[in-house]
Amino acid sequence: MKLLAIFVLHKEDDRKVRILQSEFNLEGIGYFQQRIVRESLVFSARTVIERTALGTRRSVEAYQNVNGKKNENTSVRPDDLASVIVHASVSPDGLASVIASDSEYPQRVSHTLLSQVMNDFTNTYPFTTWVQMEEQTGKLASLSESLRIYQNPHKADPLMALQKDLDDTTDIVINTLVNLKWSW
Amino acid sequence: MSITNWSLISLLSSSIEQCKSIEFMPLTSTDEYKVYCCCEENIYLCLNILEIKPIVNLCYSFIFSKDYQQDNQLNISTRVLLCYITECLTSWNIRRRLLLSRIINIQEELQFLDILLNLKPKSEQLFRYRRWILKQEGIDKVSTNKELELCDRTAEKHFINYASWLHRRWIIQYLNVNIDEELERNRLWLENNLSDSSGYSFRAHLLSKKVLDENLIRNELNMNDNMLEFYYDRESLWIYRQTLIFLAMKFEMIDKKQLLNKELDSIKNIQENFFSNKYSRLLNTLLSSDGKQFRT
Question: Which PANTHER family does the protein's record reference (chain B) (predicted)?
């Protein structure tokens, strides 16, 4: 199970989403395919946040082999374990974060990490600063650290050692990218 | 083959030899020139997926032609062909002959196979050829760690990779690897790749190699319990639990009814889902029929 990327974004309204910072972990994907995978992950992150309402969370399945190839000759089953899952969370004031992982990675841990990332980002860059930020100018140092540590969810997440109950996670529904609707 | 065609094949062959990674991607050709491959930083090679047909046809026509072929020419053309078509048995056999006449160096060949395995992790012929080479080398020259690492890598690249796990079973048997160490390595691997049923079936195979006793099975059931707490809806975990129960039922000493009842109780703590229901139904069937319904 692995994490492919973490993004921090700013959602102004349903048409404008800016990516403030992004970190990738694409080892194991071929050199030439990395370019393509990177672009499609950026696209999925942007699209999912565009269509997610403020103050909600969701996990979306993107039909794409983790190695960068589209599903060519495999009959696409809904639980095809080779697809990428995009976990997204938008806070009520417009800050959003997205994690792209494979389908093995436990959903709860990724949503915990999403909240943690947003908290860290707000601590480093207060509300007034990140509203004005340009694309890709965020420099939160702990982002790449978190991406690295959370590759192994058992060690990284303290809650894995306890029973699972998260109080602020409401319904996390898995949709497909195709089924995403505009949220107004 | 014409001179231009031959120089194309030689060029491809030497780039394949030189590079550490090969991929297939669509590259655009123009009317003036055709792009067959692209090489970056002298180690990353990218072959044009849109120009496979002409290259493969050239290689095939050379290898299967009735004219006399020189050994080094065969070396070059089979090397190119095998990157595109890994299952061409004739080419592999040609390379076996070349290896026996020492035209091909064993270490370089193993390197070449490494690179091809990154490209096609689930190729039966590749693994078979690799096993043949290892047998030629002799046991002391084979590096166990390297082979096991290769199996790990290919098993991760392709989900439920039969060829890779078969190779691993062969390595364990051929090189007499310590079973306990392997069980531990397998446990760590399975933690990261939960849904891989081949990994679990390999684990059951390892268990069957050891002298079975109650403690062993109980440990395995406990480990499975821990995993099920968080991943209660993964089919592979439930199927492995089923395998363990069947293994346990083989024992004469064990009290079957007690074991099955204990299992039914422990399932109640796990969140109910399709697989847990199926498993309870199985346990109930076993309880009511005294285990005679299933061949153990």
Answer: PROTEIN FARNESYLTRANSFERASE ALPHA SUBUNIT/RAB GERANYLGERANYL TRANSFERASE ALPHA SUBUNIT, PROTEIN PRENYLTRANSFERASE ALPHA SUBUNIT REPEAT-CONTAINING PROTEIN 1
